[in-house]
Specification:
This protein is α+β, with helices and mostly antiparallel strands and about 375 residues long. It is built from 9 helices and 20 strands. The chain has a 6-stranded mixed β-sheet with strand order 6-7-8-3-9-10, with helices on both faces. Strands 13-12-11-14-20 form a 5-stranded antiparallel β-sheet. Strand 1 and strand 2 (about 15-25) form a beta hairpin.
Length: about 375
């Protein structure tokens, strides 16, 4: 393992920011610390960097125990959200700033800067000043500066959050490409789910100072371990599961839904929650054979509202016989399908909740379920 954190705990007065978290990162891997504000992800990154002391636990980089070393001894590169470039230095001066005092000649430093600026797509920017560059270009310079020292670990602290949407999309692919080409071990901190999914090899999902799931992006999305994980990454419909005489069912209006086999048995009073993503709610088109007629969980519903999202519509569905807000279901439907079926507000239709796409969360309660109207 190239980077290891063992039982790291950090408190600020009465507030516990990190609850003895532990994880490992392979050499050349990009791992994302993902979670809502206040979950401890930035604190964890600062502990790795040596910018924040921790109360207990140990940090290893490249096999060295760096737990009590200053940042200058850890050989880490940091890219901040705010770029943090020196406005009075040229781009070349910013990139070579950390190389002074390392025994390199002026010519070697200039060559090093030129090579890195070429890698980040700014080969002609060396003599410019930060104020002459766009936000995206400044962040590229910050990345080149962080890489100039050939760091053992590259730390990216929400590096794209200050940029506009189009620049973010372009730059995240460029950063990932550069990281792979150089093979540098990287830790990315973000609250942006899409950024984490597209850039990370592995995601550590955090909540309340703890790591609640450690998985690849696709595994985290397809197999969330908790209601929190399911609701934070993407959208999820949640339905409470009830047990009556040891048989488990979930409800949508008056309809009783079949649940996955692993939930079929349990003691009366057992609590559980069932989840299904909006894109997995299938609309039944008569005569098109899209849904097998033997598939359980076919429901009669009414489109309460449609929200246009470009290629997709987010539909809010309620049970045909009338429904409270708690029984609403969201479905993502292609714009082409909406047009073909002539769907609109008030349309009556049938949907299927495929058993294979249902997620069971044993022990979860209604209170743990996120607001489904915000799906």
């Amino acid at each position: 393992m190239h980077l290891e954190m063992w039982g790291i705990k950090k408190t600020f007065g009465a507030f516990t920011a990190l609850k003895e978290i532990s994880f490992k990162v392979h050499r050349g891997e990009m791992v994302c610390l993902l979670g809502p504000s206040g979950c401890g992800k930035t604190t964890a990154l600062r502990v790795i960097a040596g910018l924040e002391d921790h109360d207990s636990g140990r940090v290893f980089i490249g096999g060295r125990d760096v737990s009590h070393m200053p940042i200058s001894k850890r050989n880490v590169g940091i890219v901040f959200q705010s770029y943090a470039l020196f406005p009075n230095l040229t781009v070349e001066g910013n990139v070579t700033y950390g190389l002074h005092g390392r025994g390199m000649s002026r010519q070697d430093m200039r060559q090093r800067a030129a090579g890195l600026l070429d890698l980040v797509g700014l080969p002609q920017a060396g003599e410019k000043y930060p104020a002459q560059l766009s936000g995206g270009q400044q962040q590229r310079v910050a990345l080149a500066r962080a890489m100039a020292l050939s760091p053992d670990v590259l730390l990216l602290d929400e590096p794209l959050s200050a940029l506009d949407a189009k620049v973010r999309v372009h730059l995240r692919s460029e950063i990932k490409k550069l990281q792979r080409e150089l093979g540098v071990t990287s830790i990315l901190v973000t609250h942006d789910q899409e950024e984490a999914m597209t850039m990370a090899d592995r995601i550590l999902l955090m909540e309340g100072g703890s790591i609640v799931q450690d998985a690849t992006p696709d595994d985290l999305y397809d197999h969330p371990a908790t209601v929190f994980a399911a609701g934070f990454l993407g959208s999820m419909n949640f339905l409470p599961v009830s047990y009556d005489r040891a048989a488990a069912t979930a409800a949508m209006g008056q309809a009783r839904l079949r649940v996955p086999d692993e939930a079929a048995r349990g003691d009366v009073g057992t609590r559980a929650v069932l989840g299904i993503r909006p894109e997995d709610v299938m609309l039944v088109e008569d005569g098109r054979g899209i849904v097998d007629s033997s598939e359980p969980n076919l429901l009669a519903v009414r489109a309460d509202s449609l929200e246009f999202r470009g290629a997709l519509y987010r539909m809010r569905l309620v049970a045909e016989e009338g429904s409270s807000l708690e029984q609403a279901l969201f479905a993502d439907v292609t714009a082409r399908q909406v047009r073909r079926m002539g769907l609109g507000e008030g349309s009556r239709l049938r949907v299927c909740l495929p058993l294979a796409r249902l997620h069971l969360f044993p022990g979860a309660t209604d209170e743990a379920m996120p607001d489904r109207d915000a799906a």
